[in-house]
Write a structure and sequence with these properties.
alpha+beta; two-stranded parallel ribbon; 2 helices; 21% strand
């Protein structure tokens, strides 16, 4: 709710999930962060993003572009992250 109420566009991390693993169940929700952010607020959730080259290059600001595959009916997709700095 914290992120959703602040109108952010996306969350991104270098791990496979933004939900605590294991034991993240909240009253029957297997992945509460995914459900809350994506379904209720329309916030994109990017996982397994390799940010090491940005950190090593001390790049802290830039324009982030995400280019997902166009898969009809899908709820997720691999994609190509691009940062312009």
């Amino acid at each position: 709710e914290y992120f959703g109420e602040r109108n952010i566009a996306l969350t991104m991390g270098d791990t496979s999930a933004n939900d605590a693993q294991p034991g993240n169940e909240v009253e029957g929700w297997a992945v509460p962060c995914h459900t809350e952010l994506q379904v209720k607020y329309g916030v994109w959730n990017l996982e397994n993003v390799d940010t090491k080259s940005l950190v090593d290059g001390k790049i802290y600001e830039g324009a982030f572009i995400w280019s997902p595959l166009r898969i009809i009916g899908a709820t997720g997709s691999p994609g190509n992250p691009i940062v312009l700095y």
